[in-house]
Amino acid sequence: MKRENIDQLVKVEYHETENCPLKGNQYSFFQIIYVISGKGSFTINNNIASYSKGSLILLTPDDKHHLDIEEKTGLLLVKFSERYVKDYKWNNINSIGCLLYGASYLSGCILQNKPDVVLVDSIVTSLLHGLNHPDLYQEELTLHYVNALIVIAARNISKMRVGYASSNTDKRIVEIINYIQGNIHDPALLKVSVIAREFGLSETYIGSYFKNQCGETITHYILNYKLRLIEHRLLFSDMRINEIVTEFGFSDESHLNKFFKKKHKMSLTEFKKTKGLAKLTV
Fold it and tell me: What GO molecular function terms would the record report (predicted)?
């Protein structure tokens, strides 16, 4: 299977086709695909979902995917490298890369937040204009548009993660999860008693409230989210284990390994070696 790379951090393309332009290759980069026209279905990692005008689809590196086109389709492809996600300073967004990588269980359109529909349409229009009418500082403008698109994609994935277990998820649970994600590196701020006090709730109530909204306990959510971040660091960054220990507030490498082995039944070094080789041989 041919593996396609990009020779730049970000690349924007437009394709209009009756045949799948995304078949038979494996990609080393992310793609955000916006459907400008046409209809059909996407198969991503054996999950099938229909697409139509306005669909926004995220493909992560090494996803297995193809299109089945029913009607001539126009696609805007926004390609960006793993290095771009890793190196860009995302301000207050905690590990946007982990969020994007964790979207591989999703299929179909990720644009579920209705106010974002207008924003995405405006960004796509601007990107298309830049492709057709390149002008001074066009590269800088394109990067701003692509960054906005990545953040919107991450925001929608985040809301889908919060709401997948409950159809009536309210604003406060989103704020609690944002708090947890924003303070994931500080164990003192992740105590249930501290979180409860931050939101003016009792420990008993916040525990049952969180589980009812998200389908898991708040402690379980914190542990799983921290593990996902550590997995991401091991697989997609150059960080040393002692740097990960410091970042997440563990006392030493032994403490982190004990925490990690509870889920993976292997050490951090074994995980990095085993999963890293698996990624290279997919």
Answer: DNA-binding transcription factor activity; sequence-specific DNA binding
